[in-house]
Amino acid sequence: MSIDFTNKTAIISGAAGGIGLAMARELGQLGMRIVMADIDEPALQASAQTLSKEGISVLACQLDVTNFAQWQAVVTEAKEAFGGIHMLINNAGVGGIPASIDQSDNAIWQWVVDVNLMGVMYGAQVVTPAIKETGEGGWIINVASMAGMNGVPYSSAYAATKAAVVSMTESWAVELKKHNIHVSALCPAFVKTRIHESLRTKQEKYGTDRPKGDPEKLKKGFGQAAALVEAGIAPELLAKRVIEALNSKQLYIFTHPNFRDAIATRGKFIDKAFEDAAHSPLVKHLINDEIQSL
Fold first, then answer.
1. Do 199 and 225 contact (CB within 8 A), yes or no?
2. How many CB atoms lie within 10 A of CB 78?
3. What's the CATH code of the domain at 244?
4. Which of 154, 158, 206, 252 does the annotation list as catalytic?
5. Is 122 a catalytic residue?
């Protein structure tokens, strides 16, 4: 049986465009009240007006996900406008700058970590109590990436933060199950968004200098990223896939089954490493030890 989203409220970060906007429209069409949050105020207002004209109940809130107080303000506004909160979609994210590890810019790394990792943590930390308050259960969807399932050369900041999002999701799924809050990690491959243009919304606190590194290599890296993103699936298709996966209570929401073998290869390496440990004269005696958990 399909989930009834009617008159429930969702907070979506990064909702002015791309995946966030597609999810806002899809859930709005299913009867949800949508709190659209984004750092890009002009784009946010334009998208909110569009959805409102389509008959969707919308509240637009400017949000820098790296600012904990702003997250708190969004929840306060959402409650005042719609009452209880039932869903959080931690969607806001940035791609960083393509670079080898020895040429990486520390300020860019900090920016990517703060937006992609801390922004997700802040969102869950603030919104989870509000979902619990309803006593009705709900959903938290953390937008990770296929990059969170496997490392990506020259994009280690992005891949590392998305892997962290997957790990946080796995942790919270167990923690929140008793509260009937379902937690999922959305792990798409390439989707037609503007993530390759993330620098347009980079906050001044992370520096205003031009990106470090060889200009030609940077240009090539950004060009390759743009081509891959622009060849990706439509955000609207992804949104429908998310609803489909929520109806079957998926922990990991995948959109690109063609990546299955590539990710399975990582699993084979992991299994081989366990096999090696099982035959190690140093640690093989631990093979039958009971696994301790909290």
1. no
2. 23
3. 3.40.50.720
4. 158
5. no
d(CA 48, CA 291): 49
**Full domain range(s) for residue 158:** 9-259
What whole-number distance in Å separates Cα of residue 122 and Cα of residue 230? Answer: 30
Tell me the C-alpha distance between 156 and 165, whole Å.
Answer: 14
DSSP 5-40: -TT-EEEEETTTSHHHHHHHHHHHHTT-EEEEEES-
pLDDT tens digits, one per residue of 136-190? 999 999 999 999 999 999 999 999 999 999 999 999 999 999 999 999 999 999 9
How many folded domains does the chain comprise? 1
pTM of the complete model beyond 0.70: yes
CA distances from 210 to 34, 46, 178, 205 (A): 36, 29, 48, 14
Q: Which residues contact 54 (CB under 8 A, 6 or more apart)?
A: 25, 28, 29
